[in-house]
Design goal:
By secondary structure, the chain is mainly beta. Helix content is about 5%, strand content about 35%. The chain starts with a strand and ends with a strand. It binds arginine (ARG). Arginine (ARG) binds next to strand 15.
Length: about 500
């Protein structure tokens, strides 16, 4: 498998180093049928991703032709991007180009459109990568850079807003739903997409992520990995935002498998903004202090948690330093981070017919020129009503290879599936375990069974057949798990009879 961090460039060929990563477990995993593909995403309005900017070449009139990286607004004068986006030499003078050769474009969802308002294009004054980032390396930790603009952005214009930065040291646990956006390569558009696209992916634990790459490339402290089957960032998305469902910015697109949305499940790798050194670099280097609105009271949720009833999100209160009142929006979600009703001005949610058992929270977001912040209500009681229907597959179908002439002998799948833990969440002695299963082999025979075993601190060992909840994702539930450290293992078999070589194992504290 190959990995690539070199910023991709439209219509300009840049020769970048390509590192060949070691592949654990042997066997050939990179399939020729997987073309690079934001992969598995859809076109999104900039008003839903108002912190997203494009970094473009100043001398190129078309934002589309000149775009080569993404970035994120942190305040009216500052944007952050990947450190490797600074390592470009478009004028071929053998040196990296100066900051003033580049502009930031904000509020422009379609880079090919004739820019009208709210699109803003502002020349960069200075930029600098983190001192720990090695701009000459193909892949390096601390892949973050701070961009200072020559003039402030109008962050009150629609579609132009600073991001909410994650706090220092705040973890993003494996399985957290995340979103990534950009104008990079898609499955159908090798030169990238003129329209901003985004896709929903999940955080992957550091060890599970490292297992896909040459260990000399990975740095668990400064990387955050995420992927979903058929969904990934890709070339040209670098420097762009990785956000949680509540829109908190947790990462920047950094690197990943060269065959984006790799068939073997290798995640995309993001710069982890919660890492304390990176977090203070991003916050502390701004000459305008980062002073987003602050919640002085969280919103509260009132109403009956029952299908068909209306829940109301009662606004909390905010203080802000920027002129004017902050823009306030609401979102309804589950206590574990899934979105039920996305950000809007609506303060009410009619509890769905199949929301039974969910604990609902409402979030309130305040945004003004100095930043954005988020506050959440306490969760509701579990909703009374029918439980959620079985989740339909959420992924777009993966392109099938075009059938070629019939092979001489029928190939046999001789490679066992690879199984990794996505998340284990235990609450009130109930544990929900999700695993990702990637069937491997040419051809793949298909997953036959996924069995998850719980070894609680006390009491009997229990094995449950996990059910498929999405393409490649299986879930098992355990109730009345005894308190203390519980271990989980998973064993997978494919139709051809191959068994996962050694069972994956993970432990968790049950409270
Ligand atoms: N390095 C790429 C860029 O410059 C980003 C690659 C991300 N790759 C991935 N498979 N997620 O745009």
């Amino acid at each position: 498998m190959m990995v690539s961090m070199a910023a991709s460039v439209r219509r300009v060929v840049v020769v970048g180093l390509v590192v060949v990563a070691g592949v654990l477990g042997g066997g050939s995993m990179a399939s020729a049928a997987t073309a690079p593909r934001i992969f598995g995403g859809s076109v999104v309005p900039i008003t839903d991703h108002p912190w997203q900017v494009a970094i473009v070449r100043h001398s190129v009139t078309s934002a589309w032709v000149g775009q080569f990286c993404g970035g994120v607004i942190v305040d009216a004068r500052h944007v952050i991007t990947a450190g490797h986006c600074l390592g470009v030499d478009f004028d071929h003078d053998g040196e990296f180009d100066p900051a003033t050769d580049f502009d930031v474009v904000a509020g422009m969802p379609n880079l090919k459109a004739t820019p009208g308002l709210p699109a803003q294009r502002i020349q960069i004054a200075t930029w600098g990568g983190m001192p720990q980032f090695d701009v000459a390396a193909n892949v390096s930790p601390y892949d973050a850079a701070l961009v200072t603009l020559s003039q402030p952005l109008d962050t009150l214009a629609p579609g132009v807003r600073p991001a909410v930065l994650v706090g220092a040291g705040v973890p993003t646990p494996a399985g957290t739903p995340l979103n990534v956006s950009g104008w990079g390569t898609t499955e159908a558009l090798p030169n990238g997409s003129p329209d901003l696209r985004s896709t929903d992916i999940f955080a992957v634990g550091d060890p599970d992520c490292s297992a896909f790459f040459d260990l000399s490339l990975t740095d668990e402290a400064t990387m955050l990995c995420a992927v979903a089957p058929g969904k990934d960032s890709c070339s040209g998305d670098s420097g762009g935002p990785l956000t949680r469902a509540d829109s908190t910015l947790v990462g920047l697109v950094s690197w990943g498998p060269q065959d984006c949305a790799s068939a073997d499940g290798a995640p995309g790798v993001y710069t982890e903004l919660a890492e304390p050194t990176i977090n203070s670099f991003v916050r502390g280097s701004t000459d305008v202090p980062y002073t987003p609105p602050q919640a002085t009271a969280s919103p509260t949720l009132t109403g009956t948690a029952k299908s068909g009833e209306t829940l109301t999100c009662n606004p909390g209160s905010w203080t802000s330093t920027a002129p004017g009142a902050p823009e306030i929006e609401y979102r309804f979600g589950t206590a574990d981070g899934q979105t039920i009703q996305n950000w809007s001005q609506a303060t009410t949610y009619v509890v769905g017919a199949n929301d039974g058992g969910l604990r609902i929270v409402c979030g309130e977001r305040a945004r003004d020129a100095s930043g954005a912040a988020f506050a959440a209500s306490d969760p509701s009681d579990p909703v009374v009503g029918p439980p959620p229907a079985v989740v339909p597959p959420v992924t777009t179908p993966v392109a099938q290879p075009v059938p070629g002439p019939a092979p001489a002998a029928k190939p046999v799948d001789s490679v066992a599936p690879r199984t990794t833990f996505l998340s284990i969440s235990c609450r009130k002695r109930r544990c929900v375990v999700r695993v990702r299963v990637a069937d491997r082999g040419t051809p793949t025979s298909g997953v036959k069974s996924v069995r998850i075993t719980a070894l609680p601190a006390r009491g009997a060992v229990r094995t449950v057949t996990a059910r498929k909840i999405a393409r490649g994702i299986y879930e098992a539930r355990f109730s009345r798990v005894s308190r203390g450290t519980a271990w989980f293992t998973v064993a997978t078999r494919d139709v051809a009879g191959n068994r996962s070589p050694q069972p994956a194992i993970k432990h968790v504290r049950v409270r």
